[in-house]
Specification:
alpha/beta, FAD/NAD(P)-binding domain, 7-stranded mixed beta sheet, Enolase-like, domain 1, 6-stranded antiparallel beta sheet
C-alpha cells in the first residue's frame, strides 16, 4: 500500500514452480528469511497445466487402455469413461500436491527462529536491484531483498497467426477446461508434448487423433530408430500422423474446424476436427518483470543468460540476481529447474555441493510404451565426431517382458569405441523404462565401462536384464546371439570418417 514500510527478506524468489519452490526450501536449510512470490497457481506449471496434471491424465489413460485389452484371457464389460470424472481426478492430484506444499510453507511461516518462509501472491516487477513491487488486483506491496532468484518458468508457444480461444483452439493450459472428450482432435507439433497428448487421447479411445508432423518423423532430435518406434506405436494406437505437412489455415464453423494441410510432396488435404491443440514448444516468462531496470536483456528467445551457478549476466555487474529453470535456456525439465534452484541458493551461501552437468540428463517420455533417454544419442556423437559402438536389444528376448505379455520395447546403449568402452548414452522403451534409466545415468556420470557393469548380478526375472544382455552383446558374450536373432539384437559401430548415418534398425 502507498506509504507502507517495505518488507525486507534475505532472499526473494519469484515463481513457485519446481525451481522456485526448491530454492526457497533450500534457503531454509541455511536459516534465511525467504519470500516466495507466486502470480497464479502454487507450484506453477510443475503442478497445474503441466507435469503433474498431464502425467496423472496419462496414468489414467494407461489404466483405461489396460482395462480395454481383450488379449489376456479376460474382458471388462460395459467399459466407459467420463471426461468430467477424469478431470476431477487430475485436479484432485494437483490439489494434493499443492496442499503438501502449503503445509511445508505454513510450517515455516512466522517462525521466530532462523529459517522463515512467507508466501506472497501477486505479479512481481523489479524497481531496482534490491526492490520489487508485487501487485495483486488493486493492492501494491513493496518488498526489499538482499538476493533475488527469478524462477518464472515458461508458457506454451503461440502458433503464428492463430489465436487460441481456450475452447476449440487450445494449448496445454486449456486441457482441463474441456467439458468432454473431443470427437476429433488435431495436435499441432510432434515433439514430446504433442506425442504425449496423442498417446493420452488415443488411449481413451473416445477421440480420433490427428498428429501434425512437419518433419519426416516425430521427435526429430532423437535417433531415427527411436522416432520410427514412437511413430509406429502411435499409429498402432490409432493416431493418424501427417508427416511432412504444414498447417496452412484453420477455418472456423459453428460445429467444426476445417484444417488445410500442405504436404512437402506438393499436395494438400482438408480435414475436419472439433479441437485443435497447439503443442509447438514453450517460451520463457521473462516479459513484464522490470528486467530493464536491472540492465538485464533476455535474448530474442526470451532467455536470460547466467553463469554456471545461475548468477544473471547483465550490463550492470549485479551480483545478487539469479535465474533458474526454463528461463535459462537449459533443458525444460522439472529436475533441471529443481537442481538450478538449489544450486543458486548454495552459490549465494558459498556452499556449493555439486556443479551442473547438462550432458547426461535423464528424460522420460510418457508414450505407449513409455520411453526413457539419458546421455548421448547417435546424432550427437556423429556431430561431435566421437566414435562409438551401439547395441540394440529387443524386449522380445527379455523374460520379464514375455511374462508381462508386453514385449513392445527395447534397450539401446552407446559406448565409446575404444578399449575402455565407457557408457555414453541409452535409449529405452517399454515397461518400467522410467524406473531403470537413472541407474544408467549413474554409470555414465561415474565413467563406468562395459566390463565393470558385467560384474553385477541382475535380478531375474527383471526388465533390467535387457541392459545386462546388451552389455554382454557388446563384449560378444551374450546368451542369445545376434546371428540367431538378427532383428532383435543388433551390434554396430561408427567412427569419424564414416558416413554420417545411423546403423541401427534401418
Amino acid at each position: 500500500m502507498a506509504g507502507q514500510k517495505p518488507y525486507h527478506f534475505d532472499l526473494v524468489v519469484i515463481g513457485s514452480g519446481p525451481g522456485g519452490f526448491a530454492a526457497a526450501n533450500r534457503a531454509l536449510d541455511f536459516g534465511l528469511n525467504v519470500a516466495l512470490i507466486e502470480k497464479k497457481h502454487l507450484g506453477g506449471t510443475g503442478i497445474i497445466n503441466g507435469v503433474l496434471t498431464s502425467k496423472t491424465m496419462y496414468e489414467l489413460s494407461m489404466d483405461y487402455a489396460v482395462a480395454a485389452r481383450i488379449d489376456r484371457g479376460y474382458r471388462a464389460s460395459a467399459l466407459s469413461v467420463d471426461f468430467g470424472q477424469v478431470r476431477n481426478t487430475v485436479l484432485e492430484a494437483a490439489r494434493e500436491k499443492q496442499y503438501q506444499m502449503r503445509s511445508q510453507i505454513e510450517t515455516f511461516t512466522n517462525k521466530s527462529e532462523k529459517g522463515n518462509l512467507s508466501l506472497i501472491t501477486g505479479h512481481a516487477r523489479f524497481i531496482n536491484a534490491t526492490t520489487i513491487e508485487v501487485e495483486e488486483k488493486s493492492n501494491r506491496l513493496i518488498i526489499k531483498g538482499t538476493h533475488f532468484i527469478i524462477a518464472t518458468g515458461s508458457r506454451p508457444r503461440e502458433y503464428p497467426g492463430l489465436k487460441t480461444d481456450g475452447k476449440r483452439i487450445i494449448t496445454s493450459n486449456d486441457i482441463l477446461s474441456l467439458s468432454e472428450f473431443p470427437g476429433r482432435l488435431l495436435i499441432i507439433g510432434s515433439g514430446i508434448i504433442g506425442c504425449e497428448f496423442a498417446t493420452i487421447f488415443s488411449n481413451f479411445k473416445q477421440t480420433q487423433v490427428h498428429l501434425l508432423d512437419r518433419a519426416n518423423r516425430v521427435l526429430p532430435y532423437e535417433d531415427d530408430d527411436l522416432s520410427r518406434f514412437v511413430a509406429q506405436s502411435l499409429e498402432d494406437n490409432g493416431v493418424i500422423i501427417h508427416h511432412t505437412a504444414q498447417m496452412r489455415c484453420i477455418r472456423e464453423y459453428p460445429r467444426h474446424l476445417e484444417v488445410v494441410l500442405d504436404y512437402d510432396a506438393g499436395h494438400s488435404k482438408v480435414i475436419e476436427v472439433d479441437v485443435a491443440f497447439i503443442a509447438i514448444g514453450r517460451i520463457p516468462n521473462t516479459d513484464d518483470l522490470g528486467l530493464e531496470n536491472l540492465g538485464i536483456r533476455p535474448d530474442k528467445r526470451g532467455i536470460i543468460s547466467t553463469t554456471e551457478t545461475g548468477k544473471v549476466i547483465n550490463s550492470r555487474e549485479l551480483s545478487n540476481i539469479y535465474a533458474v529453470g526454463d528461463i535459462t535456456g537449459h533443458a525444460q525439465l522439472y529436475s533441471v529447474a529443481e537442481f538450478e534452484g538449489r544450486l543458486a541458493v548454495e552459490d549465494i551461501m558459498g556452499n556449493i555441493c555439486y556443479k551442473p552437468d547438462y550432458s547426461n540428463m535423464s528424460t522420460l517420455m510418457f508414450f505407449k510404451p513409455e520411453v526413457a533417454a539419458v546421455g548421448a544419442n547417435e546424432k550427437t556423437l556423429q556431430k561431435k565426431g566421437i566414435g562409438y559402438k551401439a547395441v540394440y536389444y529387443s524386449n522380445h528376448l527379455v523374460n520379464r517382458a514375455i511374462a508381462m505379455r508386453n514385449t513392445n520395447g527395447f534397450v539401446k546403449i552407446l559406448v565409446s569405441n575404444d578399449d575402455k568402452q565407457r557408457i555414453l548414452g541409452m535409449r529405452a522403451a517399454g515397461p518400467q523404462a522410467s524406473a531403470f534409466i537413472v541407474a544408467i545415468a549413474h554409470l555414465i556420470n561415474q565413467g563406468n565401462s562395459v566390463s565393470e557393469v558385467l560384474r553385477i548380478f541382475y535380478p531375474h526375472p527383471s526388465i533390467t536384464e535387457g541392459i545386462q544382455e546388451s552389455m554382454r552383446a557388446l563384449a560378444s558374450k551374450s546368451i542369445y546371439k545376434p546371428v540367431a536373432f538378427p532383428e532383435n539384437i543388433i551390434v554396430s559401430e561408427w567412427n569419424p570418417g564414416d558416413p554420417v548415418t545411423q546403423t541401427l534398425k534401418q
